[in-house]
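Components:
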Amino acid sequence: MLLSALSVIIYACAGTQSIAVKHPVEVTGLPVCSECHTDYRAAMNHTDDFYTRHKLHAAQGKGKCLVCHKESFCSDCHANIEELKPSDKYKDSPQLLLPHRGDYVNQHKIDGRINPAKCFTCHGRSNNERCKVCHR
Amino acid sequence: MISFLTAFPLISSAANVTGKSRTYVQSRETAGGSNLLPLYEYLNFSVQNLGSETISLHFGGWGRYDLMDKSFGDDNYRSEVQYLYLSFRGETGNTIVNLGRIMVFEGVAAERADGIYARTDLPGNFGVSAYYGAPVETGIGRLGSNSVYGGRLSHQSADIYQIGVSYLKEERDNSELREEEGIDLWLHPINKVDIVGKSVYNSDTSGWREHTYNLILSPIEKLRLTTEASWINYEDYFTGATLSAFSFQPSALNRRERVFILGEDAALSLSDTVKVSVDYKEYNYVIASGARYYGGALKYAVAEAGEAGLTIHRMDGDTDRHKYMEYRIYGLKKINKMDIALDLMAVSYDSPISGEDNAYSASMIAGYNLTEKLRMGADIMYGKNPDFDEDVRVFFKAIYSFDFGSGEGV
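Structure:
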């Protein structure tokens, strides 16, 4: 925290312009960022594969995500305690690649064997009370 | 909501409040025969310009009340604060200080904590962030005896690369639970080529827990090729879990297992509205036999009018249980203020599971925008699978967006 406090004190030295709080142009649908941007944002086109790699972009700071998304958008999936599946809340957007669609009680036994790390991200240390009904 | 705001006299007349109230009711039956009818209220809002243009307040949380049988445990109600923090945001330097229940995504950290987070740019294209707090995780959370802290130092050239090194330490009851270091990378060496990924080292087990990298190529405007390479070491990855499913035991995970995942996803836009894609992913384990998941998709989308998609995939795993075909077809049509959708999914197992050769679900969805700010919707799902002879779920939703104040907030 000392490092952080020191950084805040000297931040003015950086002289960089802060990223916009809100995207200046309303974005509808799944955005193709490269239509306008040529820097790091161009790699964030929300193509189908972005669903599996968005964590890698978020790991480099979620500030760029919050230009378009509210924090609640992240919390709908990445929660400490969450009882409703994202695919239930957003069932009216079937084009979104959301986990746990349809019958997932049986399917999770297969997915959990194939790649348990994918489950661990959201359910390893949090949001696993429903899991504990069986996995005591 | 109103009473909450009146409790904050510091909110200036220039404050701007935006948020959303989402009310859900879900009807379903559990495998044990309980009839559930929980009512959920999800509320999130932000108060911008809180006495100063650089200060804002953010809240997100939900509450549940069971109208019929109890959903979980002994109580028929529950609530959860997902995030609640005061934020200072500088006009320059990307300086941010968040205080409260925060979410941190910085390198190795993907944490929720009750504490403080700060970041800023530094001279020379460097950036630095740090955080400290009580981890908000299942089953723990006593401030003082449990803590999570860490930080990230990054360097970037906005057009070419960003590289970060990060550190995280979590202590539970004053003993070390996790200690991780990581490297994260985004690289844009030449036009139409991007590499993004991260490597995470587990200091507790003295081993690399994960290397995950994606190579994204766009050789022509309408073609995208994404290659994924991921290496996971189970012993170093599944530490500090609060769920028995991730404990090392013969019936769950083998401590000595490692997996190398290699995947390719190719998508081609045939026109402005039609896109076709194929994908292949191979799982190579050190101990278990390998598995392959591959298939394709055809999608049709017209902006503001609707979308439709067809996907077919094959899972070819090491056991009969891990061999199946997967089909999905969906369609969404928007008609003025109304939208309707159909979503059909089916899985055909090579060998029966619990006597069932197939699992399927069919969902019909409808929504209507009563006003610009109020949307109502409902859906019904019918399913049949190895766990349910008949699974019927009904879901209602009402979503209200609000925005009041001066509208001059940052």
